[in-house]
Write a structure and sequence with these properties.
It is a single chain. Helices cover 75% and strands 0% of the residues. It is mostly helical. The chain has one domain. Helix 1 packs across helix 6, helix 2 packs across helix 6 and helix 4 (88-112) runs antiparallel to helix 6 (130-158). The radius of gyration is 23 Å and the shape is globular.
Length: 285
């Protein structure tokens, strides 16, 4: 009687196979990003189509959101400037800029959770890089941000706050926002496709973060120890590197370092997850 002999690969060979698998996954993930960037016109068309469908039949389209944002900024500006005993001239431009920028961040985080599940039909029927859907979410929210910038322009014009050369320092911050937004959509999009109950948790965290981050209140209203603890809030660092230069505030080196560190951590986690989960997203949606 002949007995079957099972050959067990040595540990070194198993490690080599694992390394080859990870190398292949990384190569496929890089190809996905490269192909997605090549199809940026498609991502732009899809993002613009989302806006048109969302406000279909509306006379003003996205400007309804602009009007509501402007009314909210005016109402909150009068109320909180009275409560905080701050001059309206000093507070309202800060609030308008903070509210518009935070609205963009909050919408990005919320919609990142459904960036793949909302495109279930396309993902199941057409072979397309997942990075296209990530760019689609970013472009869609960037278009809305472009409409809401009107609120900032109007408020700054009323108080005669004109752009200055230092405002250009906000451009590196905006570039960092773009990188973080793409990384976040890949991470939350895949994670929420696998675990559908994550999105309500994310929305709750964003509501808490809104009150913990200086959006409707100024950082200088805190004690010195409270200001020092703001560095542990990633939303503050990311918000301040864009808001500060526009308002003419000096940005501390620790704020830039904190924003950069949080971004590196986010991109590393997002890439590690996307490399492993990319081949399963189509089955999760």
């Amino acid at each position: 009687m002949t007995s079957a002999v099972t050959t067990i690969a040595p540990p070194a060979e198993l490690n080599l196979l694992a390394d080859m698998t990870m190398a292949t996954r990384n190569r496929w993930a890089m190809a996905d990003l490269a192909e997605g960037i090549r199809l940026w016109r498609l991502a732009w068309a899809l993002g613009w189509l989302d806006i048109r469908l969302r406000y279909r039949g509306s006379m003003l389209g996205p400007f309804w959101l602009t009007i509501s944002t402007g009314v909210m900024v005016a109402a909150l500006g009068v109320l909180y400037s009275t409560l905080f005993k701050i001059e309206l001239r000093d507070y309202l431009p800060f609030l308008a800029l903070s509210q518009v920028l935070w609205g963009f961040l909050a919408a990005l985080v919320s919609e990142a959770c459904g960036v793949f599940t909302d495109a279930e039909g396309v993902i199941r029927s057409v072979r397309m890089p997942f990075f296209v859907f990530s760019m689609r979410g970013l472009i869609r929210n960037a278009i809305v941000l472009g409409h809401n910038i009107v609120v900032i322009v109007v408020v700054f014009a009323i108080f005669q706050m004109w752009p200055h050369p230092g405002s250009l320092m906000a451009l590196p911050g905006l570039l960092l926002w773009v990188i973080d937004a793409l990384a976040l959509t890949l991470l939350l999009g895949g994670f929420c496709a696998r675990f559908r109950d994550i999105q309500p948790i994310v929305n709750s965290v964003m509501q808490i973060a809104f009150f913990m981050t200086p959006v409707i209140w100024k950082p200088n209203q805190l004690s010195p120890s409270g200001i020092a603890h703001l560095a542990y809030n990633p939303f503050y660092d990311l918000l301040e590197i864009v808001r500060g230069p526009i308002l003419g505030s000096d940005i501390a080196a620790t704020t830039w370092l904190g924003a950069g560190a949080y971004s590196v951590i986010l991109c590393a986690i997002s890439w590690a997850f996307f490399v492993r989960a990319r081949g399963r997203i189509a089955f999760w949606v």
